[in-house]
Specification:
Layout lengths: L1 H20 L6 E7 L16 H18 L5 E5 L9 H11 L3 E8 L9 E5 L4 H22 L3 E6 L3 H4 L6 E9 L3 H8 L1 H19 L2
Parallel strand pairs: 1-2, 1-3, 3-6, 4-5
Antiparallel strand pairs: 4-6
Helix pairs in contact: 1-7, 2-7, 4-7
Bound molecules: zinc ion.
């Protein structure tokens, strides 16, 4: 995985370079929602991995990268920090209470067709502004995951998910499906800690690119 290390080093360099130009003092509030939890495992991978564990791990990595690498650029809250089941309404209620600027629900996909692969982003906008910001954020994250990590881009779509439907307040609201656990290569890739770190970094870098520069 030597190549991946160079890619990550490159991203870190570009990030530090871009942050040195930023003079933004107001922190954006970001709620990251790792899907499922507790008795709700979410999708089960072909390798036996649970969606709930992968998405929690990636959400935590975004949180710690923000603190360690991005100098706490964002004020980040997770809807769950442990393996517990939170109701869908509580997840969007948290974003509402915090007056979150960004809400990202993280999931992994599965399909009967075991060759299906790639990332999907869903939006369910409540206003023209939310549609614009959400779609742009979704496209940027997908483009980053495709260009840097080679994960296929399956586009931004409309999805009638409750966590999106209930969120009227945040500027950008997306549900990110990070790949298919029903596809062997992606299930293995998403299970690896090194890949999870790379995905978390690309997501965070894409958010900085979209909203702060
Ligand atoms: Zn899910």
């Amino acid at each position: 995985m030597g190549f991946l290390k160079y890619v990550i080093a490159g991203i870190i360099y570009v990030t530090l370079l871009s942050l040195s130009y930023g003079q933004n003092t107001d922190k954006l509030i970001m709620v990251i929602d790792p899907g499922h939890g507790g008795i709700d495992t979410g999708a089960v991978g072909v390798n036996g991995v649970f969606e709930k564990d992968i998405v929690l791990s990636i959400a935590k990595k975004i949180d710690s990268l923000n603190a360690n690498l991005f100098d706490d650029r964002f004020e980040i809250y997770l809807t769950r920090y442990r393996d517990t089941l939170i109701s869908l309404s509580d997840r969007s209620e948290l974003a509402k209470k915090l007056n979150a600027d960004i809400f990202i629900s993280i999931h992994c996909n599965k399909a009967i067709n075991r060759t299906a692969s790639g990332t999907e982003v869903f939006i369910h906008p409540k206003s023209e502004l939310q549609a614009e910001e959400s779609a742009y954020l979704g496209f940027t994250i997908q483009k980053g995951l495709a260009n840097v990590l080679g994960i296929k881009n399956r586009d931004v779509k409309f999805g009638n998910f409750q966590v999106l439907r209930d969120n009227h307040n945040s500027s950008a609201v997306i549900l990110l499906e990070l790949g298919f656990l029903s596809q062997t290569d992606e299930a293995i890739y998403l299970s690896q800690e090194e890949s999870q770190n790379a995905i978390a970094l690309v997501i965070l870098q894409s958010i900085v690119k979209t909203l702060l520069l």
